[in-house]
Specification:
The structure holds two protein chains of two kinds. Chain A is α/β, with parallel strands linked by helices. Chain A is built from 22 helices and 20 strands. Classes of the chains: A alpha/beta, B mainly alpha.
């Protein structure tokens, strides 16, 4: 790492950016100073709306539609972007500055092969000929440890996995050996087991090519592995800036400390007493879509007042299990029991009271609420539908529910979902589930679309409600920290099979099943040496197993 | 939330013009008997009499007042077109949303039926059916509404499909809500913007279609005043350099343009583009 060279690559001075929203200009970046030396990796962290991505784009001399730079300077290697014309700015991109977006799956053009998209930029910029660009792509795929590096580029984006696509996109950014790469949450959409591979590959190549990078994320543990220096942002202003190790060991500001503390939530395990009847039980379920079998002999039980966490990578059958319980997907074999009684496997054939017993909270709060209904109608409908309350009684009940989820009824009753933040929407989703007075609530990745602080608030709320009402939760997640915060029992799933299940504390203490071990060790820790250590250990394991 | 008056005040000039023209037409259609100097079918002069102080636009082929017939034409043409479009939307919209919600064989049967109906050119199909069932106003409305409902079916099914897959619809299904509730409360409010825009566009097509049919003699029957029919009745005058047959044609053109202006604006609003 060549941190000691003193020449400045990127220098942002007193940057102000405003966004146009509903007829008004709002300042979303309020005077940020940022400097980046050659070969340095800077981490930008903060909640959504902190202006991280906006600053990242501004470093390329670009603002999104409806945004403009109102004040300040962006100097890239001495060139002022504000003075430069479109042509000069464009000449820098791809060749000297590159960008890696959050979702590779939606950033690649599905109609072209990966390698064609890799070559497009360099050729258009006149940096390489087609043959050179192809050779360059193959070399980079090799360096980023993509499987079948010599042929993978000739596939279409939908033919490779999300983690591989993210690495292919990093390769694309590396094509011209740029001086600066901006990574905008490159691993947020990935599973932990995939994330670790991408992180390792990215770090290796960044070091090797000696590029500078801005690494944007909301995950502290991730940024700790990647960055030399960290800037914490909130509402477009700087909260704190320090070298990574210093920042992790001694955060100064309260806001930074609160970000740190989120990861340490932990609950007491509540054991199940013998002879207790589970609220919901699935027994030897086999299910699939069409001819593709997704679940193989899955059995699990959820008890009153307890939380069962189902953990696994995407595609492991977690959500499919939830669909079977709710009756959206009919299993080809197996039984579903509510309170010890078998129920119909198709939700259309279930009794209204059985439908009431199981409620869902969804992953993406934006699509979980009807944008054309007011909050009082969204929560009021299940109250009216299941409890038969109307008029004043219904309104009073909705108010009660809003108070339970810690939202002020006077302020929120008449609002529409779009006037709410992500965390507030998720709370409304919880209130809608509560309104049915259910026995089991299925939480499908309810915190994964939220910022850490907000997610912690939701987890605390769910725990409080559970204690008050004796609710059972089936908690689907891929995040080990969430499991630690809320689960009593854990089921580990992989490719439609249950790998291991048991009490959380037993599961989290060794010896583990091999896959559980992989899952647990892939969870990033707040230690800057974590990635090195894990990679080192895995390498040793691989060597000894030969 | 901005009020409608504010929205209209902020609308582009073309949309404001369109709205104004539509208002004038609606006013004419509603209050035709009070505005016009004569009755719709009254013969007051010689055939093709030139304009004078009492007849501003002259007389038609039978000596009826052209101005009076133009105003009544608004009532007949626009009224029938409006009724047809509403009916087409009721039929096509309901079945389209139901297809998206129910899926499976119902969707297959409905979609394929619509494909078959759409495979036959619309004008020829309409001519065929109308000559079988006879050309009165009611059958005219029904035949065109059914044919046009196929287009409405397509758009409402396609837009509803996007909404049906969202989590809040799944939540409503799991709650045990009826199909009627899901369609009317969960889906319809979320696809109303494209449907309203489509309504404007469909209205134009229907309206041109009816005028076209009337010109061919199969639409609204005499002695009722209808713009397409009026063009045909007075077509002879064009050879004498008279502008009279162009007046009902201009009425058709103006309304079509006006409605399209408004639809463009509504589409722009619903697309959420900011410029």
């Amino acid at each position: 790492m060549t941190q000691n060279t003193n020449d400045l690559l990127l220098d942002i001075q007193d940057l102000h950016i405003s966004a146009f929203f509903e007829d008004e200009w709002y300042e979303i970046v309020k005077g940020i100073n940022l400097s980046l030396k050659k070969g340095e990796v800077l981490g930008l962290i903060g909640e959504s709306g902190a202006g991280k991505s906006t600053i990242g784009l501004a470093a390329m001399g670009y603002t999104r539609d409806g945004c403009k730079i109102t004040k300040g300077k962006v100097l890239f290697d001495g060139l002022d972007f504000a003075q430069a014309n479109q042509k000069e700015r464009r000449a820098l991109r791809t060749v000297r500055i590159a960008y890696v977006a959050q979702s590779a799956a939606s950033s690649f053009n599905p109609a072209h092969k990966i390698i064609d998209q890799h070559c497009e930029g360099p050729i258009q910029q006149g940096a390489m000929k087609r043959k050179e660009a192809e050779a360059n792509a193959l070399d980079l795929y090799e360096r980023l440890h993509l499987p079948h590096a010599d042929t993978i580029g000739f596939r279409y984006p939908h033919q490779v996995s999300g983690g591989q696509l993210q690495r292919a996109m990093t390769a694309m950014a590396m094509a011209c050996k740029p001086d600066l790469i901006i990574f905008d949450e490159p691993t947020t959409a990935l599973d932990v087991t995939t994330q670790i591979e991408v992180l390792a590959a990215v770090r290796e190549v960044v070091n090797e090519f000696n590029c500078s990078a801005i690494y944007i994320t909301h995950d502290l543990a991730v940024v700790a592995q990647m960055a030399h220096r960290i800037m914490v942002l909130k509402h477009g202003s700087l909260v704190e800036e320090a070298p990574t190790r210093e920042m992790l060991s001694a955060p100064k500001e309260d806001y930074t400390k609160s970000l740190w503390s989120v990861r340490t939530l932990q609950s007491e395990v509540r054991r199940v007493t013998p002879n207790e009847v589970p609220v919901v039980e699935v027994d030897n379920i086999v299910a699939g879509y069409g001819n593709v079998q997704i679940l193989n002999n899955v059995s699990m039980k959820v008890y009153k007042g307890r939380t069962l966490a189902v953990i696994g990578e995407s595609g492991s059958g977690k959500s499919t299990t939830a669909r079977v319980i709710t009756g959206l997907l009919e299993p080809s074999q197996g039984r579903i029991l509510f309170d010890g009684q078998e129920v119909a496997s198709d939700y259309r054939k279930r009794h209204k009271d059985d439908l009431r017993k199981v409620q869902m909270i969804y992953q993406i709060p934006d699509t979980a609420l009807n944008p054309r209904q007011k909050i009082k109608d969204i929560i009021g409908r299940p109250v009216e539908f299941y409890l038969g309350l109307k008029g004043k009684a219904k309104e009073a009940h909705v108010r009660e529910l809003l108070e339970m989820i810690e939202l002020d009824p006077d302020k929120f009753m008449m609002r529409e979902p779009r006037e709410l933040s992500g965390g507030q929407k998720q709370r409304i989703g919880i209130a809608r589930a509560l309104a049915a007075e259910p026995e089991l609530i299925i939480c499908d990745e309810v915190t994964s679309a939220l910022d850490q602080l907000v997610a912690a608030g939701i987890l605390k709320l769910l725990r409080r409600l559970q204690d008050q009402m004796g609710l059972a939760y089936l908690f689907i997640t891929h995040d080990v920290a969430t499991v630690r915060a809320i689960a009593d029992e854990v089921v580990v799933m992989r490719q439609g099979n249950i790998i291991e299940q048991g009490l959380r504390d037993d599961m989290f203490t060794p010896p583990h099943h091999e896959y559980t071990e992989l899952l647990l060790s892939s969870e990033p820790e707040m230690d800057p040496d974590w990635l090195n250590r894990v990679l080192h250990e895995r390498k040793l394991d691989a060597e000894t197993s030969y | 939330m901005r009020t409608y008056t504010q929205q209209i005040a902020k609308a582009p000039l073309s949309a404001q013009f369109g709205l104004f023209v539509i208002c004038v037409y609606v006013f004419c259609a509603l209050f035709a008997p009070f505005i016009t100097p004569f009755s719709e079918t009254e013969i007051i002069a010689d055939a093709y009499a030139p304009a004078d102080a009492s007849m501003w636009l002259g007389a038609d082929n039978l000596g009826r007042d052209m101005f009076t017939r133009l105003i009544y034409g608004a009532r007949n043409t626009v009224g029938v077109a409006f009724a047809t479009t509403v009916l087409a939307f009721l039929i096509g919209g309901t079945i389209g949303m139901l297809s998206a919600t129910v899926g499976g064989w119902f969707d297959q049967v409905m979609s394929r039926t619509v494909d078959i109906l759409m495979a036959v050119p619309q004008l020829i199909f309409a001519l065929l059916i109308l000559s079988v069932v006879g050309t009165n106003t009611v059958s005219l409305i029904f035949v065109i509404a059914v044919l046009d409902a196929t287009r409405v079916f397509r758009i409402s099914r396609a837009t509803a499909m996007n909404v049906v897959t969202l989590d809040f619809v799944e939540a409503a299904r799991l709650r045990g809500e009826s199909k009627l509730w899901i369609i009317s409360r969960e889906i319809l409010p979320n696809i109303s913007a494209p449907l309203i825009a489509e309504f404007g566009l469909r209205f134009c097509f229907v309206f041109l279609f009816i005028s076209g049919l009337s010109f061919l003699g199969l639409g609204i029957q005499p002695p009722l005043a209808e713009w397409g029919g009026m063009v045909r009745e007075n077509a002879v005058l064009i050879t004498f350099g008279e502008y009279t047959p162009l007046l009902p044609a201009a009425a058709v053109a103006l309304l079509t343009v006006a409605v399209n202006f408004v639809v463009d604006w509504l589409l722009h609003l619903s697309s959420g583009l900011k410029d």
